[in-house]
Write a structure and sequence with these properties.
CATH topology: Tetracycline Repressor, domain 2
Largest sheet: none
Distance between the termini: 48 Å
Shape: globular
CATH class: Mainly Alpha
Number of domains: 1
Oligomer: single chain
InterPro entries: Tet_transcr_reg_TetR-rel_C_sf
Structural class: mainly alpha
Number of strands: 0
CATH superfamily: Tetracycline Repressor, domain 2
CATH architecture: Orthogonal Bundle
Length: about 130
């Protein structure tokens, strides 16, 4: 199944290892390889309802959410935003990145950096005054 590629990217990125911020960067870089396919999956999933595809998305989401929760504990990511929401936002940004490349809005080589910048600017913990 296509979600196997997403799970493979989680494995290759070693999301349970090292600082969470580094793990997110590695995951985005790995997932970028499959970004067009991820965009397709996000478009297809609502059409099928509960089932094998949903189960795979739940497994994938849990692992990515744990990565963001770790980052919250490390003080890197905001705690006023749900870790699950940050996880979903990351995956959607990868998919949108693929669409943006297809439309000529961004260069393929810039995708991972643009995704990281947009994601981190919204999720990084803010310095206390």
């Amino acid at each position: 199944m296509g979600t196997d590629l997403m799970e493979e990217s989680l494995e290759k990125a070693r999301v349970e290892e090292g600082p969470a911020e580094d793990a997110v960067r590695r995951l985005i870089a790995e997932a970028w390889t499959y970004a067009p396919f991820l965009a397709f999956l996000y478009g297809e999933n609502p059409l099928h309802g509960p089932g094998e595809l949903d189960d795979a998305f739940v497994r994938i989401g849990k692992r990515a959410t744990l990565m963001f929760e770790r980052g919250q504990r490390e003080g890197v990511f905001r705690t006023d935003l749900p870790a699950a929401w940050m996880s979903e936002a990351m995956w959607v940004l990868v998919a949108v990145g693929a669409w943006s490349v297809a439309k000529g809005h961004i260069a393929a080589d810039d995708g991972p950096d643009y995704i990281v910048e947009l994601l981190f600017n919204g999720t990084r913990a803010r310095a206390r005054a």
